[in-house]
Amino acid sequence: MENSTIMIQMSDIYKSFNNIPVLKGISLEVKKSEVLAVIGPSGSGKSTLLRCLNTLETIDGGSIKIKGEYLAKNSDGKAEYADKKTQKHILGQMCMVFQQFNLFPHMTVLENLLEAPLHVKNMKKNEILPVAEELLRKTGLFDKRDAYPSRLSGGQQQRVAIARALCMSPDIMLFDEPTSALDPELTVGVLNTMRQLAEEQMTMIVVTHEMGFARDAASNVIFMADGNIIEKAKPHDFFSNPQEERTKSFLKNMLK
Ligand SMILES: Nc1ncnc2c1ncn2[C@@H]1O[C@H](COP(=O)(O)OP(=O)(O)OP(=O)(O)O)[C@@H](O)[C@H]1O
């Protein structure tokens, strides 16, 4: 159940690629422990929205606040980013999981988990090892700890990617279509791991085409089309009684 602390606040976000607007004044808020599902047609700007949150893309206008701290501030209609130190501090609180798992192929599963805590956070191995092992147990991957990623199924690799992100103890997890590259039978394990995280009160934004997950694991759903948020609602209302025509026709196609 979400509480009232605002973890993410995006206000009036604009982003263009080659003068073509992709985000057209997006505003949203995510509260602590909220699971926000972002759905919408291909090209509507969902991935760009997430990528702007973790600075893989920069915004042109608007502001982004994470846990009350400005990552980017609106200044005369333009976005002005915080200094590098502040950015690093803010970004250290968020981890992102991608469609392609992006594991280090030359490292074992365990080494993948330990890499960032050891070399980004400068933690000691005896501090982080028990955390990593516990995460591997939780995601059902403990017996794979010494395997290389190429030996794992896509679903297992994605669960490693999630465990690796969690090893950084983030307050916020961003998921960009985490099951889209997986065969349907492999999505279940990944979605179950995400459901478990949601039950443990992790604050999450999940860009997904998995309507089942959005319906029963999300606390709120937004529908994006053409760079705008068209509709935002609680999952039950969103799926049983969408208000906007574009949402209705999207859902009709997706739930066919
Ligand atoms: N780096 C880039 N350079 C140029 N155009 C881009 C870039 N990244 C995204 N776009 C364009 O921005 C628009 C939105 O893309 P985005 O990936 O955010 O959509 P999406 O809703 O996540 O789509 P999908 O569901 O297919 O992943 C698309 O028209 C895309 O071609």
SS element count, helices: 9
| Helix fraction bin | 25-40%
Order of helices and strands: EEEHEEEHEHHHEHEHEEHH
Bound molecules: adenosine-5'-triphosphate
Strand content: 25-35%
Question: What does the overall shape look like?
Answer: globular
Structural class: alpha/beta
Biggest sheet layout: 6 strands, mixed
Identify low-pLDDT runs.
Answer: none
Query: What separation lies between the terminal Cα atoms?
Result: 31 Å
Radius of gyration: 18 Å
The total of beta strands comes to: 11
List the helices and strands and how they pair.
Layout: E1 6-17, E2 20-31, E3 35-39, H1 46-53, E4 61-66, E5 69-75, E6 78-81, H2 84-91, E7 94-97, H3 109-119, H4 125-138, H5 154-166, E8 172-176, H6 184-199, E9 203-207, H7 211-217, E10 220-225, E11 228-233, H8 235-240, H9 245-254
Parallel strand pairs: 3-9, 3-10, 7-8, 8-9
Antiparallel strand pairs: 1-2, 1-4, 4-5, 5-6, 10-11
Bound molecules: adenosine-5'-triphosphate.
Adenosine-5'-triphosphate binds next to helix 1.
Keywords: ATP-binding, Nucleotide-binding, Transport
GO molecular function: ATP binding
Pfam family, one: ABC_tran
